């Protein structure tokens, strides 16, 4: 199945799940207005069932998926650290994200691929990922692991593959075993060096630095975007962008 068809399928599944949750929520409100406590309990249980059914089965170190699809998506595009695209591209689109953030996952799977296939692959823009820790303690070592993969030219493979296999928020899935499984599947060649780098004070410091930068810029959630190019006055804040059209419009305006 093509990457585009996979994205469309995931988008349809997400919309269907959200629609189910909305339906249950509406029923819950009606029950609150005209029924007793028993019916309220039933509605709450129904919501929990829908949310559980709509979740994915990610976070499994023994079952890392979509490595080939990620490799195909990024094939032939320059990578340097966590910068994807021609280093001389006139525009830089910057994402401040948290690898454990489910909204970042959705953006990575639905909004960013057309931007990567279009302006980034064509040399109009480069795409930078910067860690912004908002979810929990495991996000910092995950961010350092992505930077360490970037030291070997596999940073964006790591980021995208992590999102594809992201587990349930707060479940504790992003441990050393999971981070290592992502590194292997992302094509990191020298795992000993990767381990050394991800635990280094240098890369841990880079995670904290980009986290502080995001907060200094006034961002409060992930993903948040900024852009710089010939048509901007330095780094301009874009906030949350949820579609490829918005991102491409920002790139065109900054060119």
Description:
- The chain is of the alpha+beta class and 255 residues long.
- The protein has 2 domains: 3-54; 67-254, Glutaredoxin (3-Layer(aba) Sandwich).
- It has 10 helices and 6 strands, in the order αααβββαβαααααββα.
- A 6-stranded mixed beta sheet has the order 1-2-4-3-5-6.
- Helix 4 (102-120) links the parallel strand 3 and strand 4.
Write the layout of secondary structure elements.
Elements: H1 3-34, H2 37-54, H3 67-74, E1 79-80, E2 83-84, E3 91-97, H4 102-120, E4 125-131, H5 139-150, H6 155-164, H7 176-185, H8 191-198, H9 201-216, E5 224-228, E6 236-239, H10 244-254
Parallel strand pairs: 3-4
Antiparallel strand pairs: 1-2, 2-4, 3-5, 5-6
Helix pairs in contact: 1-2, 1-4, 3-6, 4-10, 5-6, 5-8, 5-9
Q: Strands of the biggest beta sheet: in what spatial order? A: 1-2-4-3-5-6
Strand elements, count: 6
Instruction: Provide a count of the helices.
Output: 10
State the helical fraction.
55-70%
Brief characterization of the structure:
This protein has 255 residues and is an alpha+beta fold. Helices cover 56% and strands 11% of the residues. Helix 1 (3-34) packs antiparallel against helix 4, helix 4 (102-120) crosses helix 10 (244-254) and helix 5 crosses helix 8 (191-198).
Q: Can you tag this structure with a few keywords?
A:
Glutaredoxin; alpha+beta; 6 strands; 255 residues; 2 domains; globular; 6-stranded mixed sheet; 10 helices
